[in-house]
Amino acid sequence: MNESILNKNIQEFITQNCGISVAKLALQKNPFPEVEWISILNQIEAKTKAKEKLPTWFSTENIIYPSRVSVEQTSSEKTAIYKASLISGKTLIDLTGGFGVDDYYFSKKFESITHCEINSDLSAIVKHNFDCLKVENCTFHNNDSTDVLSETNQNFDWIYIDPSRRNDAKGKVFMLRDCLPNVPELLDFYFEKANAVLIKTAPLLDISAGLSELKFVKNIHIVALENEVKELLFEIHNQYQGDITIKTANILKDTTETFEFVLDSENTFATFDLPQKFVYEPNAAIMKSGGFDQVSAVFNLDKLHKHSHLYTSEVLIDFPGRTFETEQVIPYSKNEMKTALANQQANVTTRNFPDTVENIRKKWKIKSGGNVYCFFTTDKNDNKIVLICRKIT
């Protein structure tokens, strides 16, 4: 950790230059020759990234940042707050502590937090930052987390882990066993130290693939931020054998859209119909969950087609996703397209349709944007149709 970066004048310079292009600043002469220019520029770039993602860190004096990439890869405060709402207890050990954003919020729910980070600089940075943030119930281990667990006699209420993909796993199908630490291989060892484990994974992990490698899964949380899936959380309780519940959360500016269902429920069926007055598109967290029949059953909505994942009703309902009013439904044909959409401006989405948005725009000269929303999709009779809609929410 480069403590010279904490010089008052350097800190003021970093704050004053947040938001300014680092490439532009790099051409200037270093006003603080006693500190490497690249270190100062890194702080400016990382702090700029933190302004929206980590406002608590951004607004706290004397915070030291790791690389911009580390800031990009860490949890946002909003997703960390959500995670901390899911679990609680007396003790938690984070086996892959990183920049410590999750642990900052876990520290508000647990009596004590243990932060393990094998990178010595990063471990020192987090310890320094937690002093600035006035976190007093966290201990730090600059060591391999498996060694920390092996050497301690302490048992924990929760183990939290965010395994990272090994470099040699690039291009492969993403599996947990391709990550470090190898959670499936170490799970029995973890249960010697805690009865509950929360595993964070990247959003591209296939849920069924994760379940094939794990045991005792009780809940799977799918967390999206502003309709972009950010992480999957596998909540595991030792010896649990009951139903697995999928819980989705789409964190928006003023609210959080939630939806949950029991995985593999045998009594859940979707109903189907042609487009009605209102059309609904599930948020990204629900789309990731695969609970498409459950959406139809829970909200009493008809699906347009088994594989279209668009829903419809005559009566407007409150829905976790986007809601549209249907203004026109046309068959996807040359004459209909020429009359209704060619050379027009519209937002184009495809759902269960044989062509891409790019090709549709090019073929019919449809400009992007505007207040018209078009869904190119397939109805329950396997007909290719276009829904021309007005967005409600």
From TrEMBL:
Residues 278-320 form the PG-1098 ferredoxin-like domain. Coiled coil: none annotated. InterPro entries: PG_1098_Fer, SAM-dependent_MTases_sf, Thump-like. GO terms for biological process: methylation. Keywords: Methyltransferase, Transferase. Signal peptide: none annotated. Residues 321-391 form the THUMP-like domain. GO terms for molecular function: methyltransferase activity. Pfam families: PG_1098_Fer, Thump_like. It comes from Flavobacterium hercynium. This is SAM-dependent methyltransferase.
